[in-house]
Every structure is written in C-alpha cells, then in structure tokens.
Amino acid sequence: MSDLPKPELLHTMQIGIFHHLLKWMFHFMKTHERLDKYNAIWLSVPATHDLTPKNKSYQEVSQWDGKEMKDISRYLFGVVTQSLQGGSPTHRPIFNRAIESTWALLEFYMYARYKSHENATLSYMEDTLHQVHLFKDDFLHERAGKKAKAKANTLRTELVKKREVDEKTNAENWTPSKKRQKMNAWQDYISHGIAISKELDADFNFPTINFMSHCVKLIRRYRALQQYSAERHEQPHKTNLKDSWNASNHNLNYLRQVTTIQRRILCFKIRELNLQALTQCQENSAAACKVLRSGADLAAQLGSQSYAKAQIHGTPKPP
Length: 319
Hints:
The chain is mostly helical. The protein has 3 domains: 9-143 and 206-229, no CATH class; 145-201; 233-289, no CATH class. 69% of the residues lie in helices and 0% in strands. The protein has helices spanning 9-31, 35-43, 66-83, 92-112, 119-135, 146-169, 176-200, 207-212, 215-222, 231-247, 254-304. α4 (92-112) runs antiparallel to α5 (119-135). The radius of gyration is 35 Å and the shape is elongated. The relative contact order is 0.08. Residues 291-296 and 305-319 have low confidence and may be disordered.
C-alpha cells in the first residue's frame, strides 16, 4: 500500500485538475460570449507578490508549467468572477454555478497544500470535494471525447440537411421576417441537440479527479501531501538538463556540452561558498580582535587605578 502512487500536488492538482479547469473555463467563456472580457481581465492582473507579468492572453499560451499553475491558483477565482459579472436572468444561475465550481476546486487545492492537518481541516476538504462534484456538471459538455464529438458532428450534419429541406419546401410561403425567425429557431434547435448529445456521451471518469477522492484517506494514513509533491524532482530536471541544453549549440556533442556547463556551474557555486566562508572567517577574526583590544583597554584602566596602601602596625623589619 505504501508503494502505490499517491495524489501528489504537482501532477494531481497543478498540471492535472487545474489544466482541465482552464480548458473547461475557456470553452465556457467562449460558449457564453465572454472570452474577450476573460482575456482582457487575464492580462490586467498586476505582477505583484512574485507573480509573473503577462504578455499573452490565455488563448495565446500553448503550454503551462507547475509554477505558472501555482500562480494561476492565486488569481483565477477573481478573473472568473469578474468575467461572469452581469448577464441575463437566464444565464445568471449558470454563471453562479461556474463560479462556485471554480471556488470549490481552488479551496480544495489550498487545503491540500497544508503542511499539517487536523480533523477540522480534513472535514473541510471533504465538504469542499462534495461541492466540486455538486457543481461540476456545468462543464460536462466539455468532457466529451473524440467519439462523442464525432457523434455530435454527425448529428449536426443530419440536422443541417433537415433545415435545408425545410427551407426549400417552405421558401415560397415564408416571408423574410418569418424565414429569419425559422432560421433562428433551427439554429437554437441544432445547438441544443449537439449539447445534449455531448453531455450524454461525456463523463468525469478520469484518473485525476478520481485521485481527489482519496486525498483525505491518504492524508490520515501518510500525513500531509506536500511531502509527496514532485516539484523538487522537476526543478533539478529543469536546472540541470533543460537550461544546459538551451545553452548548448544542439549539435551531436551536446552531451559533452551539457556536462561541461554543469561542471562550470558547480565550480562557480563552490567558489562562491568558499568566498562566503572566507568572508565569514574574516568577520569573526575582526570581532575577536575587537574583543581582545577591549580587554587590553580594560586591563590598562584597571592598572592605572590607585589603591590606598595598607597600614602596617608594629615595628617594621629591617631591610
């Protein structure tokens, strides 16, 4: 049991469920015509508190790493909330459920990052996970796989053909206004049918979200999940290999160049540590000399003091 894979934070949450959440939210904003506002608010997030400044909108970024996902968790809720402000009374409940679902996922992640837990925090995690499963159905149509999308495209083709037949049959009887009304009704019917088809063939049965249901049980057994995170292993992979590879000329002898670059980096680090140690020794020596000088000055002050001579009673002895 102890050798089984645990839901570590990097792959389960940061580049796991957050990656799915961003994709779901992107399609959700596009469906409800909020994508431009979403991108504008995304770019307006200030680069404060160690956040990376943004030069691209969300849809212009092709890949995210773990650190970027961790930063996104700090401001995603505000971006989603501001992007879904307003709306008609019909869309308002849908927007509220999307906001609640985003908040539940982020809150679960914040609890999972705790370095120590008690019964209260684990109870909060269970309640938050319940909220995630309660509101996740609003993103169900975004979980459609390749087969579901192919089936939906086939349905779209069939409905479009039916619309064309209906238009040709009643072209002489329809006025321009009635034709426009019929076309709008057909468009709504086709969109609704495709959405229903995707939802019927979509599900949330994938490993990342299944791991979340085991987090509380594993925390009770193996303590906090922070110690199982793969961030420490991924960071040396980036600094030791990727940076050295980018510094090489990508030729056939890249392996020798990578090892040479790493050896130089280590030499500079060792030299830096040696300089720090020498500086510390010099500072300690100067402090020690300062103490000795103070001791000498104190001895001089004590030697310069005059003391009253002791009075000797009786006859003094001859020299």
